[in-house]
Design goal:
It is built from no helices and eight strands. With about 80 residues, the chain is mainly beta. It has one domain: Immunoglobulin-like. InterPro entries: DUF7127.
């Protein structure tokens, strides 16, 4: 199942993919990886661009990994 939510002031799409025992969230942040960092606080991911908050979105469970590649953020976790 694919779910979408909006995040950030410019209402970017954040896509969530649900599988049997895990979930994946993908967001095209649109900046280089060297300008991007992510903090996970509880069940919220806070995406920072150049140390300023760019967007926040809810997480459905425990986070296993957070990766960025060419401005695309991928968060994986378990249900």
């Amino acid at each position: 199942m694919v779910r979408q939510q909006y995040a950030g002031e410019d209402e970017r799409f954040v896509r969530r993919y649900d599988y049997d025992d895990e979930w994946v969230i993908a967001a095209d942040v649109g900046v280089g990886d060297d300008r991007l960092s992510v903090d996970v606080v509880g069940e919220t991911a806070i995406v920072l661009v150049d140390e300023e908050t760019a967007m926040e979105f809810d997480l459905p469970g425990s986070v296993e990994s957070v990766d960025t590649n060419n401005g695309v953020l991928v968060v994986r976790g378990t249900q």
